[in-house]
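Section handout, structural biology tutorial.
Before the tutorial, make sure you can parse a SMILES string by hand: atoms, branches in parentheses, ring closures as digits. In the record below the ligand is S-adenosylmethionine, and the chain has 282 residues. In the tutorial you will relate the predicted structure tokens back to the input. Do not try to memorize them.
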Amino acid sequence: MSAKKWYRGRWKVSANVASLVIEAVHIISKRGIEIKKEEERECEFSSYHPAASWAKEKVALETQVALILSLFPEAKVECQWEEFLEENWQENWRKYFRPIRVSPKLIILPAWEKYEPKKGEIALFIEPATAFGTGTHETTRLCLKAMERFFPLEHPQSLLDVGTGTGILAIYGAKLGIKKIVAVDTDPLAIEAAQKNCQLNKVENIKLIEDSVTKNIGSFDWVVANLETRIILPIAEILTSCACKTLILSGILTKEIEEIKSKIKRSCREVFTEGEWACLVF
Ligand SMILES: C[S@@+](CC[C@H](N)C(=O)[O-])C[C@H]1O[C@@H](n2cnc3c(N)ncnc32)[C@H](O)[C@@H]1O
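Predicted structure of the complex:
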């Protein structure tokens, strides 16, 4: 099978326009971005584009960037494009993705690792493909920890995972014993990766949907969403209305906690933090 060709955009943008440029990338590519560096004056991130749609997405991005620069002429927006093969990307993942111990009872392993979980331990096997959610990022681990802590208190029967990526949180929910699980993601590659990971973990009760949550799509004991604040805010009310017991939100910078709290019309029961990242349980 020949390797799939991709383009990576290496962006360097002034901090004052970073959220506008990231929003444009997100809307145009319908894919997440990878933050490399966030400093007071400058933000560096990478965007990913399949070769088949790259030329179209590049033109749309250039139009949006020109618009942003017309409003902020002093700002810097640079992007260097490079072609790469998915095969190499996967090889890099294989090189750097090691087992991650989230807690004494939870370990995440690369798909190719051999491991026999101990009694009472849950092992999640993940093939990262091109989706987010290997446990290497703080925001994923914070969600997993929140789920682990609240599961014995609530024994939820249903779960909605918004922005499932590799499917890691939904799969953990299934392994904990949650019966009805729906997982959504706007990125078709994430849905593909999540499908593979469900098979890999022998989990059959997760319904995967390629979509966002723009209306109430049903009532779930738990709703978990590891998204960025700028994505959470416009759908905060819908997420809250879908969560009949508990809403777990991650992907939030500690400096954004109050903004999120003011938008969710429920009391915040617990805040988990790691470095600059926070996960809030409502
Ligand atoms: C930070 S990743 C989280 C992945 C995984 N749940 C985890 O915790 O590691 C966010 C995911 O949300 C998806 N996404 C972004 N905006 C979305 C939206 N409005 N609705 C659903 N999914 C979205 C992205 O494609 C990406 O896969």
